[in-house]
Design brief:
The complex is a heterodimer.
Chain A lengths: L2 H10 L11 H39 L1 H6 L4 H10 L3 H8 L3 E8 L2 E8 L3 E8 L9 E8 L3 E6 L3 E7 L7 E10 L2 E6 L11 E11 L2 E10 L3 E8 L6 E11 L2 E4 L5 E3 L5 E6 L6 E12 L6 E4 L4 E2 L7 E8 L2 E9 L8 E6 L2 E4 L4 E7 L2 E11 L6 E5 L2 E13 L5
Antiparallel strand pairs in A: 1-2, 2-3, 3-6, 4-7, 5-6, 7-8, 9-10, 10-11, 11-15, 12-13, 12-16, 14-15, 16-26, 17-18, 17-25, 19-20, 20-24, 21-22, 21-25, 23-24
Helix pairs in contact in A: 4-5
Chain B lengths: L5 H22 L2 H18 L9 H21 L6 H5 L8 H7 L2 H12 L4 H8 L3 H15 L9
Helix pairs in contact in B: 1-2, 1-3, 1-6, 2-3, 3-7, 6-8, 7-8
The chains are: A alpha+beta, B mainly alpha.
């Protein structure tokens, strides 16, 4: 049989067909219907939902005011917060003391205001760098006593107005900023009735350290700041100077800034820290307390021996020179005791006089960091001079106070 | 969800055997061939609305099947040691014709199957493989040469 005959025979030979082929079409038809059912009841709804979410996210991010407008609608509030990427908007939705504004006037955008009973803070974004933007004046209060602080960098301006009570303040209709004689205006709509109230808690917690007694009398929490009132005991031998404390907020510790306190009355001191207003419970931790010794208020300058009498143990006199009607001295103090000038005034025949110039710095000596201060005092040999040394005792101290929202009034 | 038209089911019943033979010719084993036919029928059911010219239904279905076979072979080739090129150098002309055909590389084997056993025209085959007629024609000539089979390649 030649190849062609072989081919013809093969062509007419019947193929063996698998029995499984018999129902293959019906099987696939059923498979197809199952597939369509899945598509109809699972895939399409999931895809539609995803598309809806993407569209909503786009809308909220392109029009942040719309996201902010959702803050009073129960479910939409959470949706807007989740889908909006702008942290400012998220914060404003989260905290109803914040007013989202996002209004632009030329190169500036007033992003939002944070308002509480004792202060108002405006956050302004620079849309492009503004040359010589240190020449800024600003106004938003028509009537009422307030203090203001402005901080500015290349990208933003933050202005804080502090007052005693918002009810005593009359706001302008506009927040007006003048930068390099260019005036920017942003409309202000402040509803004083909607301002979050300051919450207060009486503590009267006593602290005794090295025979010095202090009482944490109360805590006041407003949306922007926490105020801690500490009253020293009248029988203390040392003057209460400073306290380091912190609160835990959003898994981050916030400390009171050094020196950021104001005298409430003659004795009580008020310390300010970031506010945990929107947290239910939190811990206030005390880390250290410092006191100034009154015994170093009058340290006699002895020109004949070129020394200072009654100097605190850790403070050393390095230079002493009398020339051209002036006493020049250099004092060293351990950095741990102070990193600030420790002499701010002196006495001339019991008459208190402030130093006209304060020159100080830090240096290394024998492996120890020291704070030095240069002193220059006008000298007349017929008079007696005494230095007042603000010598601090800093006591490490740790105590934590659990604060519960239910205890606030 | 629209019901699958009866005529489509009938058409599938008509061509399923031809699809199986083509698939078997490619895959050289029953299970793989059946699997490919199943996949092809499912794709046809999903895409039959895309078929513009119903008279080419069988050619279109075969094209889908060939693509599926190629995909499957591509997957398998990553594991198979023996390649088509190795087979092609062997002399197969001394073998009985059906054995010689089965020893051809899959691309050539399927061309012989489609042209001489299922009577597709070169034009239809070129559509199925998405290749020019001249390429198909020269590949067929090569296959016949290997088989020592003197048949007409050109279409009537």
């Amino acid at each position: 049989m030649n190849r062609l005959e072989e081919f013809e025979q093969l062509r007419h030979q019947k193929h063996e067909i698998s029995p499984s082929l018999k129902n293959i079409v019906n099987q696939e038809v059923e498979h197809y219907y199952r597939y369509h059912k899945r598509k109809k009841y699972l895939y399409y709804p999931v895809i539609s939902l995803c598309t809806f979410i993407v569209m909503l996210a786009l809308t909220f991010n392109v029009f942040p005011n719309l996201a902010y407008a959702c803050k009073d609608i129960p479910i939409l509030e959470s949706v807007a917060k989740t889908l909006c990427f702008d942290q400012n908007v998220k914060d404003c939705i989260d905290n109803d003391y914040a007013i989202y504004i996002h209004q632009t006037d030329h190169d500036l955008t007033l992003e939002y205001l944070i308002i509480d009973e004792t202060q108002i803070t405006a956050y302004i974004k620079k849309n492009k760098p503004i040359e010589k933007s240190q020449n800024i004046s600003y106004e938003c209060i028509k009537n009422g006593k307030s203090q203001s602080v402005l901080s500015s960098d290349d990208n933003s301006i933050k202005i804080q107005w502090m007052y005693t009570n918002i009810q005593d303040i009359e706001f302008d209709d506009y927040l007006t900023l003048t930068i390099n004689q260019h005036v920017y205006q942003f409309p202000l709509h402040i509803n004083k009735d909607k301002i979050k109230k300051t919450k207060s808690m009486t503590l009267n917690k006593e602290i005794i350290i090295n025979n010095q007694k202090l009482t944490i009398t109360k805590i006041e929490v407003s949306p922007t700041i926490t105020k801690i009132y500490i009253q020293p005991d009248k029988d203390n031998t040392l003057i209460f100077d400073d306290a380091r404390m912190s609160i835990l907020k959003n898994n981050q510790f916030y400390e009171n800034a050094s020196g950021l306190y104001a005298l409430e009355d003659k004795d009580t001191k008020v310390f300010m820290i970031e506010s945990p207003y929107f947290q239910k419970n939190y811990t206030l931790s005390l880390h250290s307390l410092s006191f100034i010794s009154p015994e170093y208020e009058h340290c006699l300058i002895d020109p004949s021996n070129q020394t200072i009498q009654n100097l605190p143990e850790n403070i050393t006199l390095d230079q002493f020179e009398i020339a051209h009607g002036k006493i020049k001295m250099k004092l060293y103090a351990p950095y741990q005791i102070t990193n600030y000038p420790f002499v701010t005034h002196y006495y001339k025949d019991d008459q208190k006089t402030d130093l006209s110039e304060i020159s100080f710095g830090q240096t290394e000596k024998n492996g120890e960091t020291l704070t030095y201060q240069m002193l220059e005092i006008p000298y007349d040999e017929d008079h007696q001079y005494e230095l007042s040394i603000g010598y601090k005792y800093i006591y490490p101290f740790y105590d934590s106070i659990e604060i519960y929202e239910k205890n606030f009034k | 969800m629209k019901k699958i038209p009866d005529h489509l089911i009938l058409q599938l019943e008509d061509i399923k055997q031809s699809l199986y033979i083509t698939s078997y010719s490619f895959m050289q084993n029953e299970n793989d061939a059946l699997e490919i036919v199943s996949q092809t029928i499912f794709i046809i059911l999903k895409k039959y609305k895309q078929l513009k010219n119903p008279q080419y239904f069988k050619t279109w279905a075969t094209r889908i099947l060939i693509n599926e076979c190629k995909k499957e072979l591509k997957k398998k080739k990553t594991t198979d040691v023996k390649s088509d090129i190795e087979i092609i150098v062997e002399d197969i002309s001394y073998l009985p014709l059906h054995e010689a055909i089965s020893q051809l590389p899959s691309d050539l084997r399927i061309l012989v199957e489609l042209k001489y056993f299922q009577d597709y025209t070169l034009k239809e085959i070129s559509y199925m493989f998405d290749k020019p007629i001249t390429t198909i024609s020269s590949q067929l000539k090569k296959a016949l040469q290997l088989l020592k089979l003197e048949l007409e390649v050109e279409d009537e």
